[in-house]
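Technical note accompanying the year-one report. For the benefit of new consortium partners, we illustrate the data format agreed upon in the data management plan: each record pairs a sequence with a structure-token string. No post-processing was applied to the example shown here.
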Amino acid sequence: MKYLIRISTLTLILFLSLGNLKSQSLEFVTPPETHINGHPDSAEIKSYAVVRNKSNNSVNIKVKMTIVELCEGHMLYFCLGNCFTPMTTDFEMPDNTAITLAPGETTVGPKFFDVVLIPAGIECCTTVKMTFLVVSNPSDMVEYTVTFCSTTPVIEINEPSFVFAEPVPNPVADYVNFSYELPEGIADGFLEIYDNTGLLIDKLKLNGQKIIKYNTALLPSGTYYVVMNIQDNKKAVRKFVVSH
């Protein structure tokens, strides 16, 4: 496998290509992450997606993972209700492990979804397609393609990178800190906070201070998602739990 020419710093970038098919029943609450920084020596690199049942009927859904290109030494796994064993081959959830979404319900809480790369220090690119489908009608689906890319190109990557740390403390009772760094040349952006039903709770403007202290005292206990959004609709998603 060919590697790009190395320079002094290793950067891991996660690009996601979203495929929104015309599903009768399913939709993404917000677009899945489109850009995230990481490192090939990280234990795990995660991608999140929240899917909603937009139909008027309960549906049983499952996930199919299709490996487009796999780096030697990389492993992948995903969770939807249950977490499955790390693997190096295509995998489709058995029908008896599918989860049920009521009308308007989303894949959050005990039905939380993420797909995880175990990079194992390997510098190269792995691409995987994640398909959410209705068990009784597999053509009723939405999907997105994730490329985990650990390279050190000799030229700058055109896509501006940004840092969005995990919220701390987590779980939180009164105040949570959102830490971030905007790409060079970009002065602002905003954070969107959603509850576990996909409802927008708040929108915060990023002003370059690098840390936002957010009051959670009035939020009901539960799971929340904060989406960092900068120009060109580039996003990153983090999860935090409010516990009073």
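Partners are asked to follow this layout when depositing records. The CA atoms of residues 18 and 31 lie 7 Å apart.
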